Structures are given as C-alpha cells and as structure tokens.
Amino acid sequence: MIDRRTIEQLAWAVAAGAWFAGISMVLGDFTLDPPALVASGAIVAVVFGAGLLRLRREREREQRDHLLELRGLHDRVIEAFSLAIDARDLRAAGRARRVRAYARQLARLVAEQAPELVPADDPAGEPWAEMLAATAILQDVGLLCLPDHLVHRAATLEGAERERLEEHAALGAGMISRLGFPEQVARIVRHHHERWDGRGFPDGLAREAIPLGARILALANSLDAAHRQLGPENVGPERLVAWIANRAGTELDPRLAELYCRNAAEIERSVDAADRISTGTADESADLLAEDLHRARHESLVLHELSARLGASLEVGDLIRLVDHHLLGLMPAHTLALYVAEPGGETLHPLGSSGTLAGLLDRRTFAVGEGVTGWVHERGRPVINADARIDLGRSVERADPPIRAAAVFPVEDPLGRIGVIAFYSAQEHPFTDEHRRIVEQVTPQLAAAMRNALLYKASREHSMTDALTGLPNNRALHQQLERELSRARRTGEPLTVVVLDLDRFKPVNDTWGHQAGDHVLREIARRLQSGFRNCDHISRYAGDEFVALLPATRPADAEAVVRRVQRLLDEQPVTLPDGTTRIAVGISAGLATCPADGRTAEDLLRAADRRMYEDKATRRDGGHAPAPAVPGTAVRRETGPDA
C-alpha cells in the first residue's frame, strides 16, 4: 500500500516532467511537435517516479530489516532475562518456557470463550496473548535483586527473610517500568503473586481487583508447580484438573480455573507441542549459556551453604556428611577422606571418610612426607590426578569401581595447616584447575570446622571417659545403654547387661595404699576389655564396679562369656609396679536380659545388681573369693568376709 508521502513524491515527478516539456518547447528549436514533447515529458516523469519508488522501497526494506533486528534484539534481551531468572532456582529448569506456553494458551482461551472477563481497557487478542507470554518470562525479574541464599531457600523462609523475599514482586515491577515496558506489564509483574482470597503479596489484592493478566499468570504458575511436584510420571490432564480445582476460589480465580478444567486436554496438548518445538529448535548458544548459568549458580549456592553449615558443625560424623553431600557433588569423584596431623605433627590420621573405600581409608595413616598425602601436607601444595596406587596400593584396583586418580589438597587457615582432604575418582585425569579453585575456596572454613570438631571430640571424650581407667564412665554407660535398648526394641534381638564388682578390693587400698588400688583398677579394666568381645561395651560404673553391655546376645551365651572373664581374673593375679607383689583379685557378676528382666535401663541394672550380689555370696561361701597376697610371698586363697 502506497502511503501519502509516496503519492506526494509521484505528483512532484509528474510536475517535473511537465515542466521539462514546457521548457523544451520555449527554449528548443521546435523541431519536435508539441505531442512529442509532451510524450518525452511523460517519459521523464515516469522514469523519475520509478526511481523515487525504488528508493522508497529500498528505504522501507531497510527500515523493516532494522525493525526485525530490533525485535530480535528485544527477544534476545527477554530470553537473557529468562535464563538469568530461571538459573536462580536450580530445581526449576525449563520453568519459564512452560509458564510462557501456559500463559499464551490461557490468554487465547479467555479471548475465545470468556471475553466478558476482559476489562474494556485490557483488550484481548493475539497481541495481548503474546504480551502476556513475554510478561510470563519477566514476572520474577525482581529475584535478580535478592541474595542467592534467599532464593535457594525460598520454600523454608520465615519472618523477616520471608518478607524480604516477597519484595521481589514490587522490585520487579519497578525494573520493568524503568526499562520502558508498558505500564500494563509492570502491573501484572507486581501482582502475579496475589491470591483470589486476598492472602497474597505484595498488596493483598483480592478477586477482580487483581489484574486479569496477573490472575492468568497465577494459574499458569500453579500448573507449573503441579508439574514439578507431581513429577513427569504423574502429570496428566486428570491430575492437573484435580490440582487446579482444589485451589479454585482460594489461590486462583474460580472462573479461570473452571475454564482451564473444561479445556485441560486441549491446553496440555498445545503446551506439550510448544515445549517440544521450543526444545527442539533451541539455539545451541542459548543452551550452553543456560548450562553455564546453572552450573555457576549451583556451585555458588552449594559452597555458600557448605560454608554456613561448616561453622555450625561440631560432630566429626556430621562434618564428613556435610563435605560428602555438598563438596563431593562438585567434584568428579565418588570417595573422599579427611586426614589430620597428630599433635606432634609426624603422622596423619584419618578423621573420617565416605565412599566405596571408606573402610580402607579409615585405617590408613601416613607419615608426614609419605606418599602423595604426606607430601601435600608437608609442602602445602595440592596434587591433582595422581596415581591412587601410590597411597593406597593395589587395593584400589579391586574396588568397585576401580580407583584410578587422586586429588589431594592441603587444609589450612590463618592458624596453620591442620591436615589434607583427598578425593578419589574412577576416571583417569578427571580433575582440573576449576576443581582446584572450588576446593581452595572452602578449605579455610573446612580447617576451622576440623579444629572445632577435634576440640569437641576431645572434650566429649574427656567428659564421657573415666580418667583413671580410660573406660567410658557412668554418663557414657547410660547413653550407650539407651541406644542399645532402642536397637533391641527395633530389631527384637536380646540385650544382656552384666554388672561386675571386684571381690575384696577394699583390703588392697587399706594394705598397699590407693596408688596400688589405682594400679589394680587400671589392670582389671584392661583385662576386661581384652576378655569381652569386640562388640561388647565395657564401662566403669562406680568405684570398683563395672558394667558390660552385650548386644544381640542370649543369656546362655552371655553367661559363657562372663564365666570365661571370671576365670581369667581368678587365675592371673595383678603384679604391682614393684615387680614382686602379686594381688589375686576376682570379680563377681550378675546378668539381666531385655526383655525378659525388664525393658528400661533402671530395671535391667537393678536386676543385674541383685544377681551380682547373689553371685558374690556364692563365690564367697564356695571358697572362690580371693584374698590379697602378702608382699613378696606367693598368692594365698582363703575364705572370709567380703569387703
């Protein structure tokens, strides 16, 4: 279609041709008759006009190409916003694309089947549907103004942090307005988190006070949430209809919800088709950009969360689980170990490990300078892609999968070097400088956490350990007994509790002094540890009393173990530090089993203590209670009152 300006230019071309003909007639030699001159003027006008039209078309084509280029740039800017917003939530990959498709389909449906819902100043139609689809991409642009950790923990935030997160709707509307988008877009962005019942944010609008576009986006977002929460295997029109119906009248506009439910099958087909087309034709550079954004965002969030939790971690086991859960996922490895230097600094001991080689790593120690691990601690420089066999021998080849490469990093902070962290991989040469950078970011916090864990472990061991014998004390006994009772109730297996009391121990203190008595107690504790099984728990209960816990052990089997220990103590007197005095000290024992003798710690200890005194009386009356020996003489056995 020729516009007014072009018509004016053609008129001027005709006038120019006529002028040319008139001038030719006046100034010429009149060899041409007037009709010929008129014809020549017309030709000039046509040629001149054609040139003008050609120039005009070229200018229009250039303008059209420029507009298309600007539109493409506009689309790419919106797409970049979409990628940046989508990358804030690692669990919502593809969310923007799906919500955009829903918004477009719902807007078209409203225009076709419910035009009465559309306000007069908010005309429906294809341009409006495309505008709403673009707004769907930009709806959460305000999240770019918030810290990553708030966005990552959005579902669990409360109080002031929740209020801060909810500011993103108003922030996004402000950004949209400053970027020059239509005011209608800014209003939709501001109110897309409002609820039909007025319990949304930021302004608590309700019902029709919420812009129609925002109500449509709320429905599209709810459908996207259904996809993510129900999972691909459970998403279908019927489940989605039930999902939306349950939220109609509270979160969602009931008329829009009913409109979707009537057309759910058709809408889902259209959205699936749009998603396939979008995914199938996605620009490769955009895919790579999205992948880079997600990877960078994931790394940032993981390291932030790990650093925060390391500061609150005191238990060694919790520390290992934190490092395994957070850091191992960023590394091309499936096994890790933490080693700490002993106080003297000559040996590295395992603090903990996880993965397929955990059992081996928990037993492996290194001298400082030995192997890759010892070398890294000594020099303070990391080593990546080392041969794992250097430190772990041929056992790595028998692992499933076999271990091929190791990456070992020093762990240090301003207080100094505390140990190393080692990663093991089944791949060959999997570690890069990027992995080195990741680990080095977190090692100062890891070093501080390791120091705290070691201090806490030492303090707990001190508070839970008997200072004289090194056995767990009364407090530790009760904690362990509760754990074993809980396990026994859960598994149905028996638990046997044994109370042990030394025979005639008081005369030892009275005759040879308390230092000799302490020596006897330490030696008896050592013999009890070696006499019972590795799975049994031996504690010093009080004074010369001890308690043994025998998990998953029937009374008859427990009695056999106890009688063996009694014979061991009866037959092997304790030699005092002078090397000549030997003291024969026996031990009386009483057993109680859960559930036969009780289900609580108090019941079991009471029953076992009663039977211990019965055993003591039997041993005394039967002549089995040993008497203390006289210094420098052989051991003598005699009956007598028990102390």
Mean pLDDT: 76
The radius of gyration computed from the alpha-carbon positions, rounded to a whole number of angstroms, is 43 Å
Strand order of the largest sheet: 3-2-1-6-5-4
Structural class: alpha+beta
CATH level 1 class label of the largest domain: Mainly Alpha
N-end to C-end Cα span = 121 Å
Strand content: 5-15%
- Do you know the CATH topology of the largest domain? Hypothetical protein af1432
Largest pleated sheet: 6 strands, antiparallel
Task: Tell the overall outline.
Answer: elongated
**Number of β-strand runs:** 12
The tally of domains stands at 4
- Tally of helical segments: 24
Helix content: 55-70%
Low-confidence stretches: 279-294, 625-643
In CATH terms, the superfamily of the largest domain is Hypothetical protein af1432
Quaternary state of the chains: single chain
Specify the CATH architecture of the largest domain: Orthogonal Bundle
Give the gist of this structure.
The chain has 24 helices and 12 strands.
